[in-house]
Design a protein that fits this description.
mainly beta, Tachylectin-2, Chain A, five-stranded antiparallel β-sheet, 4 helices, 6% helix, 40% strand
Length: 367
């Protein structure tokens, strides 16, 4: 049965990016989209760098201020009626001007957060060190399975390549690293290929984002140029979907003349709905080939809808962004002009969207 679904997709023509994008219907009413989100200006940014918290780094063998430089790009999850953020934090040490580690913070209103004093996922002297040092552990996304085990997709950066890795936990504080997401796929074909931003398809129910199978397998959108697909039996070992030529199957990419002209990148875990699979995605604009109405290099976010029985088939795609950088903490920072959405929860009958601002701070928008 291995990848019979993908073979059928390929035979049907789903491997052709141009034919996929022809299926996009941009002019229909966007009642399928999760809108509108309003930035919570009275509390934003909700997390900023902290120079008081210290951590003993097992690799450097020294104590350091692990979130002193920047905090951004959080995953979000609801556990025991509390919102938890798993966020990327950087110190100021090393040739990459800071190593990334994953911190955790919690809130009982979704807006005001307390922080754990030390990171919960970080480079260590372990089997994944060669993929994580010294760039670090970056940009997590989180889902859970039916038993309550949490699965984290995150990026390891060794200074040369970004690679998608998997970790699991039952309490959010103690994580077991499982290594590269694609390590067993196609005899290791993708081990030394650039990969990141894993958005697992799930159903948001009772405040949780629970991974769901489609046609007998779990599915994940990933990538930061085009968006690609991968599938899995266990949420740990993943196989990228390929086209009929043995290349990665691109399900959609940038659009000339628009805000997403330069790249597209997965956002929070994709949402299985009655209308289809809703993916919130990030994008970057280059004005020479994109939208002259927003800043050069601006990261804005939009939404796209796929068939609920075929994760490669586009049904609709928004014609514009729904959030863009326009606040001082979004337009100026480590990287200017960035709203990078990554965490989404349904909490107390509202939707909370958490995002990194200018690769420096964390903010929230609420629906």
């Amino acid at each position: 049965m291995r990848f019979a679904i993908i073979i059928l997709m390929t035979l049907a023509g789903f491997s052709c990016k141009n034919s996929i994008q022809k299926n996009t219907v941009e002019k229909k009413k966007e009642d399928w989209a999760l809108l509108p989100f309003i930035k919570e200006d009275n509390v934003n940014p909700i997390l900023v760098p902290d120079s008081t918290t210290e951590f003993f780094c097992p690799v450097r063998k020294e104590k350091l201020k692990w979130e002193e430089k920047d905090v951004f790009n959080p995953a979000a999850v609801v556990r025991h009626d509390t919102v938890f953020l798993l966020y990327r934090a950087e110190d100021k040490i090393g040739k990459y001007a800071g190593t990334s580690r994953t911190g955790i913070a919690w809130s009982t209103d979704g807006l005001h957060f307390n922080r754990h004093p030390v990171p919960v996922l970080y480079p260590d002297n372990d089997s994944t060190k060669k993929y994580e040092w010294e760039g670090g552990c970056e940009d997590p996304r989180i889902v859970e399975d039916e038993t309550g085990t949490y699965y984290l997709t995150y990026t390891g950066f060794d200074g040369d390549k970004a690679r998608l890795l998997i970790a699991t936990s039952t309490d959010l504080y103690h994580w077991t690293k499982h290594g590269l997401a694609f390590t067993k796929a196609y005899n290791g074909k993708y081990v030394n290929k650039w990969s990141k931003s894993g958005s697992v398809i799930c159903k948001y129910e009772d405040g949780k984002a629970i991974a769901k199978k489609i046609n007998g397998r779990y599915w994940m959108y990933w990538g930061d140029t085009d968006i690609f697909l991968a599938s899995s039996d266990d949420l740990i070992h993943w196989e990228p979907a390929e086209d009929g030529h043995g290349e990665l199957l691109s399900v959609f990419g940038p659009r000339k003349g628009k805000f997403d002209s330069d790249l597209v990148e997965s956002g929070p875990p994709a949402m299985l709905t009655e209308n289809g699979i809703l993916l919130i995605y990030n994008s970057r604009n280059v004005r020479a080939k994109g939208d002259t109405g927003i800043a050069e290099g601006a990261y804005a976010a939009s939404q796209i809808l796929f068939d609920r029985n075929d994760p490669s088939k586009i049904l609709q795609r928004m014609n514009n962004y729904f959030i863009k950088p326009d606040k001082p903490y979004e337009t100026s920072g480590q990287v200017n002009e960035v709203c990078f959405v990554e965490g989404l929860v349904n909490y107390k009958n509202r939707w909370f969207l958490y995002y990194g601002t200018a690769d420096s701070k964390i903010a929230v928008a609420v629906k």
